[in-house]
Amino acid sequence: MKNKFFDILSAALSELSYPLDNIIIQIPKNPNHGDFTTNYPLINSKKIGKNPIEIAELIVNNIKERENSLIKEIEFIPPGFINIKINSKKFTNELPNIIKEDSNYGKNKDGKDKRVLVEFVSANPTGPLTIGHGRNAILGDSISRIFEWNGYSVEREYYFNNAGRQMRVLGKSVYARYMELLGLDFQIPDGGYEGEYIKSISKKIIDKYGKSLIDDKDNPIFKESAEQFIFNDIKKTLKKLGITFDLFFNENDLYDNNSINNVINELENKNLIYKKDGATWFKGTEVGRDTDRVIIKSTGEPTYRLPDIAYHKNKYDRGYDLMVDVFGADHMDAYPDVLSAIKSLGFKEEKVRVLIHQFVTILKDGSPIKMSTRKANFISLDNLIDEVSADVTRFFFIMRSMNSHLNFDIDIAKEESDINPVFYIQYAHARCCNIIKKYDDDLDKIDINVLDQLTNEQETKMISKLLQFPNIIKKCIITLEPQNISNYLSELASMLHSYYAKERVVDPKNSSLSDARIYLINAVRIVIKNGLSLLKISAPEKM
RNA sequence: GCCCACGUAGCUCAGCUGGAUAGAGCAACGGACUUCUAAUCCGUAGGUCAGAGGUUCGAAUCCUCUCGUGGGUACCA
User: How large is the ipTM?
Assistant: First the structure.
């Protein structure tokens, strides 16, 4: 619809020989300003060298002179806006398309033949996922889904490290609990993990090996059992949210297949590396960073930046058209180093999009809880899902912009009250379903001509809203904010509820109007369902 | 100190690449169920968009500074 107006406007502009490169068409907030508006005269008046209002008038007159069935009213308003009202019939004409496309309505093929890799979660297997990981997981998965809806071929990847210091400490912690459970002397290592789950792991080891390992504290069985146990746990939690990964990438492989060394050599060839104080440094300052960074410690162990560089190189080598990294705010300082290194290795930086989300503050009894996996004083993501359902969890994490801190009030989330907008949207869907159930005839047999009766303001606005859905999904590719979808759905649900309260849909006394309205309701149902499905939130037919 | 976000109603937050009168929900107050489900709707009240400059026809939105909050600033990940 917008495109059609765009064409009409462009035609007028070229006839007036005005520039065509700066055309913005918007949907005005104020309904008195019509269905669409453009500020073209205002932003181009300098270039054209005329008064905005003068330009507006010329454009409007030009459009008026020509025949078109799309525009019902067109006017220019000081200081230089052009507002148009669309023939409501043009809106209703689009409705059958929604019904026809059904569960595909909103999808597009813009990303056809493009492969995108979305890396997210990437929590090391040292403990259950926290609520913070939950934000990352749901954000990453929702973004993957947005790509899918835009026709991209998407791979979800989980990057992990099972070889570092943290994992060694984990193994030691398991050993300590193993000894404890056997009633022997034990000592929790410095900075060891204290969660209950450690004991569960130790117990499993006892079940299997008994006391045979008491003098074998460095036996890899401790670390490996822990890793296996925890990873299963993590996958189980993710599955509850409907998230599965296509790939698990082990950082260790980068060492085994020499990628790390190769990166060092390449950087060395580019003269971006030097030794100082026994460590190996990356010349960040050479590539526009504030400071140089250690990439290999004097102990010979790389810092996390080095494998990260190798990892990204690996992704490039796999030939993706786009790579998305979803990180928590704690990576803020690290990724620019990685990107600049990647760039200096000759890769295109633009192929990587780094999404940084802020942290989640958990509020309980009104005050924030400090969380640490190590101290195990966190509320696990798994617990949260069990308490408030996967739907609510998913919605809660994407309804806020990723770059604002999220206050997660446990007490409110648990309440499952009407505070939570996900119910509002789901209820709108259930309502549509219920109305449709009350309708006796066959939806497929409705004569499309009856749709002309959908002329009241609420109806026109709602149809216009439905028609925006595909654009919202396209827009999300630019913003990569799933929030755009949840906002849209809330607005649509609100329109539906309001309409429902005011107008009778199925009215036996007026069957032709009923037909038209039920047709509309069915379209609303489809759009809400598709939106929720994109977000992997259920759309109940009954509540 | 330096870097990056954020600061919008009492609370939690929307606000699209700058647009016309800044919006929801919760909380408060007043209404609406013999009706297609009231998990809903309608109305009232609530604002110096942190503050100060700047850019321009026009700023919550862009730029600069100040203040405040969070995060980062390790040879931790």
Answer: 0.92
Q: Which domain holds residue A321?
A: 115-158+243-357
- Separation between the CA of A405 and the C1’ of B7 (whole angstroms): 11
C1’ B28 / CA A487, Å: 26
User: CB of A357 within 8 A of CB of A327?
Assistant: yes
Residue A542 lies in a domain: no
Tell me whether the omega of the peptide bond preceding residue A368 falls within 30 degrees of 0, making it cis.
Answer: no
Tokens representing residue A89 in the block: 């019939």
Longest Cα separation, chain A: 95
In the 333-352 segment of chain A, residues within 7 Å (Cβ) of strand B are 333-334
Specify which residue's alpha carbon is closest to the C1' of nucleotide B18: A43
Please state the φ and ψ torsions of residue A153, each to the nearest 5 degrees. Answer: -95, 120
Do A432 and A515 lie in one domain? The reply is yes
User: Residue A382 domain-assigned?
Assistant: no
Through-space separation of residue A40 CA and nucleotide B33 C1' in angstroms: 49
Of residues A36, A30, A39, the one with CA closest to residue A2: A36
One domain, residues A277 and A316: yes
Count up the domains in chain A and report the number.
3
Query: Could you report the per-residue pLDDT of A193-226, keeping only the tens digit for each?
Result: 888 899 999 999 999 999 999 899 889 999 999 9
A312 and A430 together in one domain:
no
C-beta separation of A305 from A254 below 8 A: no
- What CATH number corresponds to the domain at position A31? 3.30.1360.70
**A391-449 pLDDT, tens digit each:** 988 998 898 888 888 877 777 766 655 567 889 999 999 999 999 998 877 778 888 88
**H, E, C per residue of A281-349:** EECHHHHCCCCCEEEECCCCCECCHHHHHHHHHHHHHCCCCEEEEEEEHHHCCCHHHHHHHHHHCCCCH
